[in-house]
Amino acid sequence: MFKLKENDVVLFQGDSITDGARGRNSDLNHVMGHGYQYMLAGEMLADNPGKGVRVYNRGISGNRVSDLYGRWQEDCLMLKPTVLSILIGINDIAFKYINGSGSDPDRLEKIYGQLLDEVLEQNPDTFLVIMEPFYGVSPDPDIHAHYVSRIDAMRQSVRNVAEKYNAVFVPLQDVFDDFASKYDIFEALWDGIHPTVLGHQLIANRWKECVLEKLNER
Asked: pTM of whole model > 0.85?
């Protein structure tokens, strides 16, 4: 059970995996989109009625870490999150292949740190959750080789950020590696990268496993 504080503001940030085709208007039926963030938000709100808790989704499909920085004022700082969860990095690998515009691991680590510095400058008590980027498979051997050669370094950079900022780290690569060792990976990642409903539930389960106890202990 989530035990949030009065007037907590929970913000999920990231790329398409977090975006989940979320609504961009005031329709509260679709505002969270579909995916792990929707699953977690439902639990959080159902466990904490009457507390004024707000949960936001500001993931945007296709975003790299530099895109987060470009919209950080309006899509993070102005919301004043007390709990901030970020999943970013896979598009930095993708865009390196497409047009060279993605960040390498060192640059991602630097920009990620700038994002968190601004959050903690605004509120040093912000509870930070850093989620690990993950990869499944691509049927294109060139694309697959590109991802495989870069994903481990990107994962390590994100882990470095979590350690530096004392954030809760949510490892996800092992979740999908373990699934793939037993079942068809496309049951969890429909195109080898983006989760199915099953895949999103696996992410939500791991997030809760890593975060719940520490979040409740604040």
From this structure: yes
